[in-house]
Each structure stands twice: as C-alpha cells, then as structure tokens.
User: Fold this.
Amino acid sequence: MPRVELAPEVGEDFERILDHLASHQAAHIETRMREIIAAIDVLETNPLIGRPADNGKRELVIGKGSHGYVALYRYVDSLDIVFVLVIRAQQEAGFTR
Assistant:
C-alpha cells in the first residue's frame, strides 16, 4: 500500500483554506476539512485515481462548487509513495508550486 506524504507547504494550504472559510463564516468548517483529509487518504489505496496533469503529476478532485478543492500530487511507483504537493480551491487559478 502506498504511503502518502504531504509537502511542507500543504500545511500553509490548510491554514489558508481555514482562514478563508472562517472569514466567510462558512458552515461546518471541521466537516469540510475532514472531507479533504479523507479524500487524500484514498490515495493510499488508489494512487492513480486523480486525473492526469502536467509532468507526471495528477489532480485529485475533492467535492464540487464552492465546497470543491483540487489536490495536486505525484505518485512515484518505484518508491510506492504519493507526494501531495498543493491543495487549492477549485475556483483558484492554477498551481504555482
């Protein structure tokens, strides 16, 4: 079973998402964060579930609309590791890292 590792910057992504949700007084913030984490956990058993992206990376779509996020990741088969690189709201423009 592949191991999932989060890039250090993903912590900043979670902080940014939490700040955004809190500033907009979103309902069920804890539940929404748990949903993101649960979706990332799926990569342990299905590392190729995300849609192909540039340079061997993949995008895991999490939720939809205003509750939607995308996790950019790379699965390294030879190491059996999934590296989660970035998490963004679906409405944000692109990945910069």
The longest helix spans residues 8-23.
